[in-house]
Design a protein that fits this description.
Layout (H helix, E strand, L loop, with lengths): L3 H13 L4 H9 L2 H8 L5 H14 L3 H9 L2 H8 L5 H15 L4 H9 L7
Length: 120
């Protein structure tokens, strides 16, 4: 399991490198996506929220969108979008929105089919 400091470091790097596609790609290559997706299952709302935020930032990069989807991130984010914790819900929806915005119609159609959580 990743330490709390490790989580904070991943979130910080994802925000710091938000505008650098190369850094986002490198973070994903080093295992950040898999790590963050596993942290979505945490019982801590803080960890869920920060992991979702980091995935939202990494999900701006088109290569990372596919990796997040392929690693099972979308169903976990959809689940968190129904969270009772408003901060978790907001960050999960932001991540899903970033994943849905590109030319890949599969992801956009999947998101629309599973967006019933918006009406809860």
């Amino acid at each position: 399991m990743v330490s709390f400091d490790g989580i904070v470091n991943l979130v910080y790097k994802s925000i710091l490198f938000y505008f650098s596609a190369e850094n986002q790609r490198l973070m994903a290559e080093e295992g950040a996506v898999e790590c963050l997706i596993s942290l979505l299952d945490s019982s801590s709302e803080l960890i869920q929220r920060q992991s979702s935020k980091a995935l939202a930032n990494l999900g701006v990069n088109n290569e990372n969108k596919a990796k997040i989807a392929d690693c099972g991130g979308i169903p976990k984010l959809v689940s968190l979008a129904s969270s009772k914790a408003l901060g978790v819900k907001i960050e999960a929806i932001a991540a899903l929105a970033n994943l849905a915005v590109n030319g890949n119609t599969f992801h956009a159609k999947w998101f629309l089919r599973h967006s019933q959580f918006l009406y809860r």
